[in-house]
């Protein structure tokens, strides 16, 4: 018997040993009494050991066996779960029975434990991981499993559907999650409001009804004025962004102008931005003077200390003034910015907002619409005194748009701006990336400047465009041809080699401007590129340095290029001859060209008369007598033989 007294399996021990060990305890426990009773009754198959270590080992084995069973079960269900969670529509239509296995499904969806469902922010983090992997169905079922703790995850799922333009599933997902016990909050209604109206005109009326119904439900559940303001502004933003301005205006007029719940700076900014986006006020005359009315209301409420000026509110009003329907906005915009913003430095004692690139962009836009192009040049020269301004691409483009209209612009102004852009773009981590529109605007500004250097254009073509990986499109080709045609007809034309290389560049990229069918979205730009390309080719063919090459047939490609450009231009005009916009643009182009020709003639005559007058005065002061005698002799030879003398005033008339 003593051979079995070691720590081996309890079931292999004799009954007498168990009885002896049980009675040898001074204080017998209920567990030992139960074991003794089982031994006396002859039930020696199952014994509970008195030592907790053996019990812990058995529990660990039981857990491991259960985990293995669940793993095997999950392995079997994995293909079915993968197919079911592959689409959101599957979750909206059916519910399989195996979803009752919460641990298996939770592990498949990314949970390490079901206790994670008790924390809403943990659920939101796991939802984010699934959305990063583009698994919206996984995220949706996680929110369903979390129930009351799934609000954060639901908001992130709805925002993901809005960002991916999946508006048709937004409200279905929201309704189902709400039915499954996930409560919405203020952020939920804000997201639904933005998704209520989308760009699809076919569902416009339905979306407006859904949007207004969501707003009505949200306002009914709102418990504070802050919540009401959030719902109202979100609805107004959606109406301004996607629907007709009339709906936004009617909704705006229903918002109280005074009180605890009333229009705030976001409400005013939204309506001012709506005015700024309008191209024509004939359909909505109520919006024409709305920006002035809003600004008067803002000033009155600021005076009553019901509202405060913010940079966003001031920018929105200034941006609304920079509209083609308003004239001379520069002075008002400049006065407002100097009143509320600090241009030189931002200090805590000044109580002014720092002047940044956002305000600079609007100020340059006001210069453009007010035709104060020289002011943009002055602003550019004072950039070094604006420490809070970091030039972005929009500011650079507006600078160049103004430079293109400055007469006799200093060439170094756009050149230094180009160097600044290239240096910033090539620096490590530089955010400034040039585009094809940037290249076009730079070349247009170069064309307007005096002492223009064509070598800068060649440098941009050979270095800047390849280094920044800028695709050559119709913007670049059209402006490049226009620039070289202008240079070829100027007093300082490019060399024959430069002109040939420019024509070769046009020849290599001719396919970009070869689309002259009705699918061409920019026929006017293509026509401009073709006409200027023809001028380039003609100038290259007329160059005496290329005479021998033409004679030997080495420049056959240049002749073919010129003929191809002519054929494309004829085909383009034939294709769009019934297009009223294209037709009127061609007529304006002809009238402008004739006007420019007549202006050049008048300028030449004016200069000629001025030179003659100056020469005449100089001669009269130096030797009036000699002039009279010379003119008299000349007139005597031209008059009749019987004319004996010539009067003094007749001599002056001849002169």
Overall description:
The chain has 655 residues and is an all-alpha fold. Among the domains are: 2-50, no CATH class; 64-184, no CATH class; 485-577; 580-622; 624-655, no CATH class. The protein is 67% helix and 1% strand. It has helices at residues 15-23, 30-40, 52-84, 88-93, 102-109, 120-132, 136-146, 151-163, 167-179, 186-196, 204-221, 225-242, 245-253, 265-277, 290-303, 311-321, 330-340, 357-370, 373-381, 393-403, 412-426, 436-448, 454-467, 474-488, 496-508, 523-542, 547-552, 556-575, 580-622, 624-638, 648-654, and strands at residues 341-342, 353-354. It has a two-stranded parallel ribbon with strand order 1-2. It is extended and about 125 Å long. The model is unreliable at 1-27, 43-48, 618-625 and 630-655 (pLDDT under 50).
Briefly summarize what is shown.
This protein has 655 residues and is mainly alpha-helical.
Calculate the mean pLDDT score and round it.
78
Largest sheet: spatial strand order: 1-2
Query: What gyration radius follows from the Cα positions, in whole Å?
Result: 42 Å
Q: What is the number of helices?
A: 31
| Stretches with pLDDT under 50, minimum 5 residues | 1-27, 43-48, 618-625, 630-655
Subcellular location: Mitochondrion
Protein name: Mitochondrial group I intron splicing factor CCM1
Keywords: Repeat
InterPro entries: PPR_rpt, TPR-like_helical_dom_sf
